[in-house]
Amino acid sequence: MNCHDCHQETEPDHLFLCYWCGQPVCDQCLTFVPLPQDTTVAVCGSCRQRQTQSAADESMWQVAVEASLGGHDLEAWVVMEDGLGWQTRCRLCDLTAWVGHAGVMYVLLADTCPRTKQP
Fold first, then answer.
1. pTM confidence score
2. pLDDT (tens digit per residue) in 13-71
3. In what order do the strands lie in the sheet with 96-100?
4. What values do phi and psi take at 106, rounded to 5?
């Protein structure tokens, strides 16, 4: 199999898959980047330059849309004190959602807000 970055034929046991794009990357071209919760992931050269903010933005939109469809009324996203991500809270039920810099989501919001008025 060929490395996505250097295009060299590489043995499968020396290839990794890029965390963001899924392309195979050899151990010579590979870079490890940190994520929240003391996790590191392997990324290719193209994705190394990728702004992690874009992944976080996508996740924030996903949380907001799903929450809205479930009747939640979310507050504005705020940066966490530890600087590892953002958090929002439902104004109605007080449940929260967190998004990390790489787009990792930790959502405690119920599928349907328990405080939403039912028709």
1. 0.55
2. 888 888 878 899 998 888 887 765 556 778 888 887 665 556 788 899 999 999 999 99
3. 78-79, 85-89, 96-100, 105-107
4. -130, 100
Residue with tokens 């490890």: 32
- The structural domains of the chain, ordered by start, are 12-48 (3.30.60), 52-107 (no CATH)
In one letter, which amino acid is 102? Answer: A
d(CA 108, CA 105): 10
State residue 118's pLDDT score: 59
Cβ–Cβ < 8 Å for 63, 72: no
Q: What is the C-alpha to C-alpha distance for residues 43 and 39, in angstroms, rounded to an integer?
A: 13
